[in-house]
C-alpha cells in the first residue's frame, strides 16, 4: 500500500528520513491524481475512495500514523495543516469523480422507451357513504331543496330543548349522549341545524341537512358511536302530511328502485306530531321474506312527521301560519342496504380491499 516518491523510495521511508512536508504533500497529491484519472466507473470510484479515505487501511490514515506522529515537534503544525488540506481536496475530488462516473454511465445506457406502459398506480375510491349521500342529494335538489351542514359540537338548547325533548327523555341521559366538560355535547342528530336555519331564514324553506352524529353506543355490526345522518325538512304555509307522504314515496322509489313500495306506521318523536316510521319492501327478497327483513317482507328505513308546533315556536315561527314536515335516516344504513353491506364497522376500518369495490 506504500506510495513511492519520484526517486523510487517509499513515502513512509521519506517521512522517517525527514522528508520536507510540502514536498511529501505534493507527492501524495500527484499520486492521487494519477489514480483518479483511471477511475472511470462507479465501482472504480468506490475503490478509489476506500483506498485513500478508508478509516483503518486508507492511505491518509496510514500517513497520519507515520507522517504527523513522526514529524518533529516544530513541524507538526505544518504537517497537520497540509494533512487536513489534502484530506479535504481528496474528499471533494472523490465525490466529483463519483458523480461524473454515474452521469457517464447513465448517458451510455439506452434511452427510455416512452411507448412502454408505465407502472400501475393505485386509484382511490369513493366511500360508500359518500356514494349514498350524492345519490340522495341528486334526488332532492331537483325538488328545490338546498343543502346545509351544521356544527358537530352543540348546546343543550339546540340539541334537546328547542326540539321539544322533555327533561326526562332517555336521550338526555349520559347513557345515550356524549357530553363535554364545558356543558356542550356532541350532537346526537342533525336536527339542531333545522332550528338554526328556521331562526335565520324565513319560509318557504326546503333543506337537506347531513353530517356526522354521535351516540354513546357499543360498536357492533349495526351500531357505531359515530355515524352519518341525513334529514330533510320543509316549512311553508298550508303544508300537509300528504306532501310529506308523496315526497318520501318519490324518494324511496328513486333510491331503491321503481318497484319499491312504502308504508307508514304511527310512531312518536318529540319534535314531530303526528309522527310515523316508514318501511319499504325488502330490496333483497321483494316481499317474499328473508333473513334480512326477518320474514316480514318490509324493512324500516326512516322516521318522519309534521314538525311539532312547539318546535316552530322555539325557532321564532308562528305555528298558526306555518306548517312543516321533516324526515331523517342514517346514511350508513342506507349505504348498507344499497350495497349489501352486512357490518357497519367495515366502513370505518380503512380496509383498501373493501373500499376498492366502490370505484
Describe this structure in words.
A hairpin with a 2-residue loop joins strand 6 and strand 7 (272-281). The chain is an alpha+beta fold and 359 residues long. It is elongated and about 110 Å long. The strands form 2 sheets. Strands 1-4-5-9-8-7-6 form a 7-stranded mixed beta sheet, with helices on both faces. The protein has helices at 11-16, 21-36, 42-53, 59-68, 76-108, 128-140, 156-159, 191-200, 241-256, 309-314, 331-339, 352-355, and strands at residues 146-148, 153-154, 185-186, 205-214, 226-236, 262-269, 272-281, 298-307, 323-330.
Short description:
With 359 residues, this protein is α+β, with helices and mostly antiparallel strands.
CATH 4th-level superfamily of the largest domain: Bira Bifunctional Protein, Domain 2
Computed structural class: alpha+beta
Counting DSSP H or I runs of 4 or more residues, the number of helices is 12
Stated plainly, the CATH topology of the largest domain is called BirA Bifunctional Protein, domain 2
**What fraction of residues sit in β-strands?**
15-25%
Give unreliable regions as ranges: 1-7, 14-18
Number of DSSP strand runs: 9
Q: Could you describe the largest sheet, including whether it forms a barrel?
A: 7 strands, mixed
Compressed to H and E, one letter per element, the order equals HHHHHHEEHEHEEHEEEHEHH
Mass-distribution shape: elongated
- Overall pLDDT level: 82
CATH architecture of the largest domain: 2-Layer Sandwich
Question: How many structural domains?
Answer: 2
Lateral arrangement of strands in the main beta sheet: 1-4-5-9-8-7-6
